[in-house]
Batch of 3 targets.
Target 1
Amino acid sequence: MTSPINPQDIGKQKAGAAAAELIKEGMVIGLGTGSTAKRLIEALGERVKNGLHIVGAVPSSDETAAYAAQYNIPITNLDEHPELDIYIDGADEIDPQLRLIKGAGGALLREKIVATAAKRFVVIADPSKKVEQLGHKYPLPVEVVPLAVTPVKNRLARLGAQVAIRERNGQKFYTDSHNLVIDCTFPEGITDPTALDATIHSIPGVIETGLFINLAKQIIIGKPDGVEIYPQ
């Protein structure tokens, strides 16, 4: 007996396929990190196999670089191509103002660097990622220099966050840039993402936050029966 297909997985696949159609001949693109971004890479790989030529793709993580290489997508970097035509990535939460929480996969710093290098940042997701207020479903990740992790953790706690240094398999998790991640849960959600982002950035030792504000230009929500795109 086969297990039923998860509607969330179908949504990710639909969103990834729709986003792959935005990539045109000769573009330089950015590729995000995570399960939804992998669906994009698979769809783009099929288009490359069928003759689409792109100049190159800048990956936002080592994991993405390796996965894209499996699909013969040419890899480049921001030294060779400091301005990208489009960056496509998933998100953990998306609010009505297109503000995002990202970084569940631990690539928030590189994701933000690549996103800000692109003329256009398109987010792909399934419906579960849409929220009325950020911070209720996913913790806010904060990337931190290892030397500063304890004082930064204490400062974040004084902002009202429940804080935890991210671990994987019982060990501290290090990003591709060799930093640590502190996950911050705000019990009442994040009421003012812009102010919170500025406050956290003012703490010495903080490298980046998972708040993506005024960056996303368009959202593609994949559903079993199609996609929802906004703004059109």
Target 2
Amino acid sequence: MKVKMMDSPQELGREAARLTAQAINEAIAERGVARIVLSTGASQFETLDELRTLDVDWSKVEMFHLDEYVGITEAHLASFRKYLKERFTSKVSLQNAYFVDGEGEYEDKMKRLSEELRKAPIDIALIGIGENAHIAFNDPPADFDNQQPYIVVNLDESCKRQQVREGWFPTVNDVPEFAISMSVHQIMQSKKIISAVPHAVKAQAIKQTLENDINPDIPATILKTHSDWTLVLDRESAAGVEVAK
């Protein structure tokens, strides 16, 4: 585990993007292609904005989407497909982009997406940490054992409140009850994981993650068992812990 503390969300985004681009370029140099997982939400704005500007041959990159709500259209403000297409995939020329789609008969879509994901390992995954310490939409208590690549999960109240505070929904009652999420087990199969976690609202989750043993009630603690996990913080998100700059 490596923990880095930057002065601002902008510096955090630059550092997380630099590390990500470096890993992508190393995978391309080694195998001719890189497979990545991207997460979404307000915490990822700076990282994705910077990443798409860096020197990467995106035509040799395959991207997989981390999670999506069940039952909302791509046109919805909160759609993570919409988020990624507007903020990232429309601005770079990827070899392939695989999205989670929770509309209609989503079980068949999950199966096809899982088949694509299982074809080769993920080189690098950008995995945020939620205010309740969730990773993807694996809210506490998270299932650490389910080995399916994508699973349907029930969103807890804390997670729903976060979505409202970030401006994706007007009220908690408007947040869908369920989401499709990459499983914890699948996330942990990634060769490298980078977690870009800015802002004061994440300080408690970071403190809990770093100061507690592995615990499904604090899902992000599982990341500490990964062989190549880098946690990038800013001054506000690191406020509750001791981090050498």
Target 3
Amino acid sequence: MSGTRLRESARGPARNPATSPPVTARTGRLGAAAERYGLVLLLVGVVAFFSVLPASSAAFTSPANVQAVLASIAVVSVLAVAAVFPLACGQFDFSVAATSLVSSIVCAALMSNHHAPPALAVLCGVGAGVLVGLVNAVLVALLRLNAFIITIGMATLLPGMVQWYTRGVDLVRGVPRPLRDFGSLTWLGLPRVIWLVAALTAVCWFALAHTAFGRRLYAIGGNASAARLVGIPVTALTFGALTISGGLAGVAGVILTARNGGGLVNSGVDLLFPALAAVFLGATAIDPGRYNVLGAVIGTLFVAVSVSGLTLAGAAEWVPAVFNGAALIIAVAVSTLLARRHGTS
């Protein structure tokens, strides 16, 4: 008897089974909340840090800088959301940034060289993005070619075509003031382009998170063979995801034209890696382990705020590039580990 009591004493006081589950459940809920909103908390921490850092506090918290940061994320946010759709079904689209460049040039060329009405130019710019998306969709979804290789090839091909068409000359003449004002002015204290980005984000978030279309895309991304066995049209949905990606990249191109006041031949392509960093960072938040629209936008804002703070604090020119690269590597690693943990890859 004494030996039994001694062993029980060494193990510590007995637990009450009636009280243990709630504690475990509460701890689990706190852990899940920390996982879902960790990136948001990190963003708040970065904002607080640069807001009190003497080297950056005055400029970082100014209305002008807030507006500049928000305006700067407009194109990247749309590109990040565009990349989410094919990633949701297990495909890559590395051509989104190059597609936005083509759309920007098409939009600007119609107004600058052909004096087309702005509305027609905008529609054709978006249509150019849809066309690129359709080509990707035919090659990847119908012909079943490797999306990684195809979209990398497209990302190399399109800027070359832009250089050939423009001969390296920016298209900045003939762009009407209303379009330029849309890219540069504010409404209710926020950049006008942000209102468009917010509307697109809301629509895309709803489509992926609250419709059968979105659920089926995620099912394909989880296991395409199993999805096909239960009757999900894998080919058609993959085709649609790549086409939507191209269309959204087309919208980003039109925003790029409005922001730049024309079509710049070297603009947009360098936005691919910030957009991808935002997407993979976003996969660690809101719906951890899964590519999601809200997470991608939060990731975009996190990268932009961090780079802005570093620049205003006097960081060297190479620091933003290193930060973007490190953010992409860390985001890919964390999102992959979370996906394995949640059984989504």
